[in-house]
Specification:
- The protein has 615 residues and is α+β, with helices and mostly antiparallel strands.
- It has two domains: 2-327 and 498-608, Amino acid/polyamine transporter I, CATH 1.20.1740; 331-492, Jelly Rolls.
- The protein contains 22 helices and eleven strands.
- The strands form two sheets. Strands 3, 4, 5, 6, 7, 8, 9, 10 and 11 form a nine-stranded antiparallel sheet that branches.
- It is elongated, with a radius of gyration of 27 Å.
- The termini are far apart.
Length: 615
């Protein structure tokens, strides 16, 4: 079952959702004449409260509505999601995250304008409910109600996994790892805090989010900016690395441009939620009589989330050099270098001080001054063999990495166990191994330093506990000229762990603490707003009783997620989030003509002075 949902969520999020979100964003941008760019100055005027009229219908201010929506989107996607995008898609994935963020602003404008236009307001209590399920039914007619019900069900289910249990699980794991706080204690703390906020409804969520979101964003971005500032001389290199890799894919897993694009687009959508249909639920509660006005404010969401906060994370990771095959971290004291080496070398091999320089500014492949060099013709008996221990006191290795400079020829690398049996072998110029016992991530380039990661299969890892491996290098070809250095056992870092490692490089020890605290706040902010999304969907389906039941279940899931492995539930939930895009996109496209007419009318009145600032 777990494997099925893992594959299913991959299918949903790979092409269908990615293409639908990206193409609809481009469509709205063109149809609305780049409204997301033209309206930015007015958006900040709205946020400052210049147009806030307390007599207008709704429950919260423009600033509180944006803060509530941002508290859902600014979460682990900004810390872990960016790291995953760079790990799997390379630095260039950040460029495609920017592109999606830009077009996603138009999507947010459309969906939040619709959410505010077609909301329900209780005449007695003033309580507001809105979102795609409301504008699907009201805007498209009763015949589309099954689609509205489908969206509401998907929202309820989607709120339990990635937006709840995954958040509490990651927060509890982070606090346990760095502060040794038992996971159930973190879960209980989140449960109590969340209960206090959730029982106060959208008003309390808006009040908490309007204070929490600006503070946590400012602190997190300040940390990233500090690291960028002390490395300001390298920042132009960061930008050029992003732009070059966006169209070459050299640092992506698999080395393809398509991989870069897919990972960038996927993580951007997952982070800013443009097109998923969640944000209109929060923005619908705003105090305004002009739906377009809230669409303008909402369009700032992807700008803040993706183009600012995600870029802050990406900048630190790229500055650290932890991308491509360099994202793997060495096991403590499990590195072989060739400094002051006394071991005799086979014919043709030399220990040299004068080797080509490392041209890259962000990634360092050489360990010291001395490297190993071979400059003769290839021969099977001219191999060099190095033994490396694949376990430390911390953990077992996920693989082996070595650095190389390829000038001419090739080498055959063999992985050999303690019984002198060849486990697998491959050529340095290729990406495939002979026996598929290892996976090759080849970051080697001709005429420059690079590194190659040999990743163990699960079966191989289970058989290697406490043992050593040998790696043999056999020169191949009439003329061979290759340098080798830094052979090391490595562990796989991705997500939060990779971001922590990047911050730790510049802020030793403190970086991990900083990211751990950020994870706690970001996780809490995400789950309090997503609870409102789920309760609004349950109200649409079942009325007030449905809201109470969903709130109790949501709070219980916080406790459960903090102490349990939740992969199955999270994969199921992520699939639901992806499927939410389909009914929402259909509704937005069908209603976009109306949004265009409302926009023209609003900006015409604003320009003529018919719409005036309230303050």
């Amino acid at each position: 079952m777990e494997e099925f949902f893992a594959k299913f969520v991959g299918m949903v999020w790979y092409y269908p959702v990615v293409l639908l979100c990206l193409l609809s964003g481009i469509f709205f941008t063109i149809r609305l004449s780049f409204v997301q760019i033209k309206s930015i100055p007015h958006a900040f005027s709205l946020l400052r409260g210049k147009y806030d009229n307390p007599k207008e219908k709704g429950e919260i201010t423009h600033f509180q509505a944006l803060s509530a929506a941002l508290s859902a989107t600014i979460g682990l996607g900004n810390i872990a999601g960016v790291a995953i995008a760079i790990a799997m898609g390379g630095p260039g994935s950040m460029f495609w995250m920017w592109i999606v963020g830009l077009f996603g602003m138009a999507t947010k404008f459309v969906e939040c304008t619709l959410g505010t236009k077609y909301r329900d307001i209780d005449e007695e209590t003033g309580e507001v409910h809105g979102g795609p399920m409301y504008y699907i039914e009201k805007g498209l007619g009763k015949s589309f109600k099954p689609m509205a019900i489908t969206f509401a069900v998907l929202t309820m289910l989607g709120g339990f996994g990635g937006a709840n249990m995954f958040q509490s699980n990651q927060a509890a794991s982070a606090l346990y790892e760095f502060f040794h706080i038992e996971k159930y204690i973190t879960g209980l703390g989140l449960f109590i805090l969340a209960a206090f906020v959730l029982l106060g409804g959208i008003k309390r969520i808006g009040q908490v989010a309007s204070k929490l979101v600006p503070i946590m964003c400012a602190i997190y971005i300040s940390g990233a900016l500090f690291i960028t500032f002390i490395n300001i001389h390298l920042f132009p290199t960061v930008i050029s690395t992003i732009l070059i890799d966006a169209f070459t894919g050299t640092a992506a897993t698999g080395g393809a441009v398509g991989t870069v694009v897919i990972w960038g687009v996927r993580r951007a959508i997952f982070s800013n939620e443009a097109g998923i249909g969640s944000a209109p639920i929060a923005h619908a509660a705003v105090k305004t009589d002009y739906p377009v006005r809230e669409g303008i404010v909402a369009s700032l969401g992807p700008l803040i989330d993706t183009i600012i906060v995600c870029t802050a994370t990406a900048s630190v990771i790229i500055l650290s050099g932890f991308y491509g095959t360099e994202r793997y971290q060495p096991l403590t004291d499990q590195t072989i270098s060739f400094e002051h080496r006394l071991k005799a070398l086979p014919y043709g091999w030399e220990q040299v001080t004068l080797s080509p320089d490392n041209d890259e500014k962000l990634r360092i492949y050489k360990n010291g001054q001395q490297t190993l060099s071979y400059k003769k013709s290839g021969a099977h008996n001219r191999y060099i063999s190095e033994e490396i221990h694949v376990e430390s006191t911390e953990r077992s290795a996920d693989g082996i990495r070595f650095s190389a400079y390829l000038e001419k020829g090739d080498m055959l690398a063999k992985i050999i166990n303690q019984n002198d049996m060849v486990i697998d072998e491959f050529f340095l110029s290729q990406r495939d191994s002979k026996n598929n016992m290892v996976t090759i991530e080849n970051g080697l380039i001709e005429g420059g330093w690079g590194s190659l990661a040999i990743l163990f299969s699960d079966d191989l890892k289970s058989s290697l506990s406490g043992k050593n491996l040998r790696i043999e290098f056999i020169p191949v070809g009439e003329q061979v000229s290759i340098y080798l250095d830094r052979i090391q056992a490595i562990k796989n870092f991705t997500g939060v762990a990779l971001t922590q490692a990047a911050f730790d490089k510049f802020l030793p020890d403190f970086g991990s603490i900083f990211i751990t605290i950020a994870v706690l706040f970001f996780a809490f902010s995400t789950l309090i707003t997503w609870s409102y999304y789920g309760t609004t969907a349950s109200f649409y389906l079942f009325g007030k009783k449905g809201k109470k039941v969903y709130t109790v279940l949501f709070l219980a899931m916080i406790l459960f997620g903090s102490v349990q492995s939740v992969d199955l539930v999270v994969n199921f939930s992520d699939a639901m989030l992806g499927l939410m895009v389909i009914p929402n996109a259909i509704a937005m496209i069908l209603l976009s003509k109306k949004v265009k007419l409302w926009s023209i009318d609003y900006f015409k009145k604003l320009k003529s002075g018919e719409i005036k600032p309230y303050k």
